[in-house]
Write a structure and sequence with these properties.
- The protein contains five helices and ten strands, in the order H-E-E-E-E-E-H-H-H-E-E-E-E-E-H.
- The chain is globular and about 55 Å long.
């Protein structure tokens, strides 16, 4: 078989799959629970961990999880994912992006359009959909979405646990520089300063102080993933900062003149 024949076969299969998914999507099985709805009121998938549920995002062969389906946000060319799609979560200009429902309750629009008032940034939604469905179902991922929308600078554990902001103020309850707060205290289970904790111990896989860890905390700067906080010089990625150098990193990356009052 020639290369041209192979390409033709792939195109035909992709077209057949697209037609099959369109027929399946035309008759979705109810809208209870947690799901995504298009700006045109087209059902876009159930949010659950069941790969056998035809209507689930987790079913890679269904109309909402397949990269070939026109009703899938995983199809980069579909009306719901293309940066030019009329109803796409990736279109920064669409007035009609997808709507998120959790336990049947409307929670906001998943969209790259900064002008939408109840906007949920698509990046944390897609990340949670791929790696932490539970955080969508319990609503906790919305806090991460809000941090990214505000452009916060913070640390997040490999398992998705929030580990504190890098606000240099020692009075900020959420700052890792507040030695009495939940993210700065050496006794807190969510603090990288707790040498006996999951996120601060020298032998914990999720600790920045484990010199061999390949799953240390992630650092988000101004709402975007910047790199890792780790003692491991060989951890994946180009951007890394030693946890003992965080104050110096903050000073050189971002809080303006106000930081001089705290460092």
């Amino acid at each position: 078989m020639s290369a041209d024949d192979s390409d033709d076969t792939k195109n035909i299969l992709a077209q057949l799959l697209a037609e099959l998914h369109a027929k399946q999507a035309a008759n979705p099985r109810g809208r209870a629970g947690s799901y995504l709805l298009g700006g045109d009121d087209v059902f876009l998938g159930n949010i659950n961990n069941d790969p056998h549920d035809r209507d689930s995002f987790k079913n890679p062969y269904g109309p909402y999880g397949s990269p070939y389906s026109q009703t899938s946000i995983f199809n980069l060319y579909s009306p719901y994912r293309s940066p030019y799609g009329t109803y796409s979560l990736a279109n920064p200009y669409t007035p009609s992006p997808p709507k998120l429902f959790i336990d049947g309750q409307y929670r906001g629009h998943v969209t790259a359009n900064l002008r939408i008032s109840d906007r949920i940034p698509p990046e944390p939604f897609l990340d949670a959909l791929a790696h932490n469905i539970a955080s969508i179902l319990d609503g906790s991922f919305l806090q991460k979405a809000e941090r990214q929308a505000r452009g916060d600078t913070y640390i997040e554990a490999y398992d998705g646990t929030f580990l504190g902001t890098l606000n240099p103020s020692p009075h900020d309850q959420e700052s890792i520089f507040n030695s009495y707060g939940p993210f700065g205290s050496k006794f807190s289970p969510t603090s990288i300063h707790n040498t006996y904790g999951t996120y601060g111990g020298a032998y914990s896989a999720q600790s920045p102080y484990n010199q061999y860890s390949r799953t240390p905390p992630k650092l988000f700067h101004r709402g975007k993933l910047w790199g890792l906080v780790t003692k491991n010089r060989y951890a994946p990625g180009n951007n890394k900062v030693d946890p003992d150098d965080l104050k110096a990193w903050v000073a050189s990356n971002g809080y303006g003149n106000a930081i001089k009052r705290f460092l």
